[in-house]
Amino acid sequence: MDVFIQSLSASFTPFVILLMALGVLIGLIFGTVPGLTATMGMALFVPFTFGMDPVPGIAFLICLHLGGVSGGLVASTLLGIPGTPSSIATTFDAYPMSKNGEPLRALGIGVIASLVGGALSFIALVTISPVISRLAVKMGPFEFFALIFFALSLVAVLAKGSMLKGVTAGLLGLAAGLVGFAPIDGLQRYTLGILELKGGFELLPLIMGLFAISQLLIEILGDSKSQDIDLKAKGFAFSLTEIVKNWWNLLRSSLIGIAFGILPGLGSGTSNLVAYAQAKQASKTSERFGKGAPEGIYASESANTASVGGSLIPMLSLGIPGDTVTAILLGGFMIHGLQPGPLFFTSNPDIVYVVFIAFFVAMVLVFLYQLFGMKLFTRVLTVPKQYLFPVIFVLTIVGAYTTNSSIFDIWVMILFGVVGFFLVRNGFPIAPMILGFILGPLLETYMRRALMTSGNAADFFTNPISALFILAGIACVVFTLRSEIKEKRGKSSDNTLNV
Predict the structure, then answer these.
(1) How far apart are CA 397 and CA 403, in angstroms?
(2) What kind and span of H or E run contains 59?
(3) What is the pTM of this model?
(4) Comparing C-alpha atoms, which of 5, 85, 107 is closest to residue 357?
(5) Who's near 45: CB < 8 A, 6+ residues apart?
(6) Quick one: average pLDDT of 279-289?
């Protein structure tokens, strides 16, 4: 208790409070501006903490991390462009809701969902982090392959309503993920002799193209109808009853976020898509998804914020970063002479408490910034398109270029912008393509590692956890397909009766 009180008093000095407020604000800006990510913000500002003591330095970085992930909500909702990969699924329903004239409601739902996800991941971080980390580290390539296979099977759920087109989009994503060096053996695939393609397509230019450039093309060509915008709503523009109705959705999505945050290599970029697909699968009104369904926003935003706390668990207790942001954060710890790992909780309990306190403060600050900034953010929608679109285009160009300081990434963004435009115009969902691109290479990597470990493919089914996830994935596909066929037969019967 004495250590906690010392950490508390060290964390609430005026200087540290100012740094935490600044860290959250910088994180929100990096998350909000298309092309800037929490990873980029962390990489740029870790050197800023070199001359600081560990307490203010670590508190600043933790706040920047959470702010960066949470900031993607604004761009996703108002512009239809994921500010970060962690808010891809937010665009699916928050942007349509915004286009339907309810941007304040969409932002309000996102803010509350982020708060709930952050609170639940904070509880997990404080209470069960050592236990969960020990379980996660026991998972081998068979279990990881099966888990990713299950997540990939959710393509069927995301494609529900247009299964053939959704699966086609998913295969396109898988094909894009195959470009470059193969995992393990380093074989070149589909590089066409182009040097820049040897490393494969970067995620950020692909996302910017599929969402930002394609959306700009759709708007410019006049396919989008403008709606009256409701900026007079008070509070969060939705009722408490709606939150209560979504309690299970929030809890399930937050648990998905925590779990995917803990597992190395997955993180918030994947968790928001998986949580969204699960929400769609469980919803009785799944046909509303993609058209402004609140359930989709609750799922995505609670999952991506919960991933932040989840990703800190293995980093603190095992010294293993859960994603790229925590990898840079781990470097920030080491710069301050701290080595997270199994002994970190006993050797540096004061810093562990500082992490907990900074995470909690960041969660509250994100909530307050977004709550009081909602009406200001929505003013973006009142800017005439002839001024707004050039700004967005320049931001996407800058964002794509800064990924690797490469002109090639700009061309990649434009290429996928044209691809996204034609997909959307012809009714193909984008979500399965993103899921295929992210999870395809991971699936191949763990499959190869598993086969190198034993050389026996039957082990995928004799390992209990692996078999469970694989069977769950197959069941998910079969159930969704059966539901799709049943719905189409029902509609066909109704049409026949009407005739």
Answers:
(1) 10
(2) helix 54-70
(3) 0.73
(4) 5
(5) 23, 26, 60, 61, 64
(6) 81
